[in-house]
Predict the structure.
Amino acid sequence: MNYQVVIPAAGRGKRMKASKNKLLLELQGCPIIIHTLKVFEQDPNCNGIYLAINEDDRAELEKHIAHHQLHKVQKLVQGGEERQHSVCNALKHVTEELVLVHDGARPFIKQTVIKSLVSHASQSGAAIAAVPVKDTIKKVINNEVEETIDRSSLWMVQTPQAFRTSLLIQSHEEAQAEQYLGTDEASLVERMDVTVGIVESDYDNIKLTTPEDLYFAEAILRKHSNIII
């Protein structure tokens, strides 16, 4: 089933400690955002990409998109003050029945995971990528351990997150009306008592947030150079 994808890319990435949008930093000579966009460009079921951007980055993004011949990028949409606002702005342009929302700073998502997400969301309406928690998790208050949380039911949520477009638009409209700011798209849909399915992803699908993440990203790229995803 065909889908379109919204990629919020308007953040400044303060934790990356960079002088510009972290998505324009390079990995092996190519901006992070281009690595991400190429995954969807190469997916035959993706027929449109909408980027929510900071206007200060428009010229540079347009240059890179043209240079790498990313023909599926349909529009660069003005981003909002918060990620949720950026996604909402881009959603207005989506024309497919299914939409994915994906972090621009996750360049290592595999097409097999995307395919599973699309399949699940087409049937149930909502599905998100995630991986089981590996570490011991403790609840801490005032630097003191309150309890150890049973990790058997805990998952670390990633993107993409896949939805029926009409459902995600409705969830944004309700959140806006109630001035609710969620942590991800699924949190908006969950408020509507809609069941959100889990598709198991993998631990390589990291979000590049801090300078240390770039070292891991280079290692993952070297590994992926010998793997067909």
Q: What stands out?
A: The chain has a mean pLDDT of 95. Helices lie at 32-41, 58-67, 83-91, 111-124, 165-177, 185-190, 211-224.
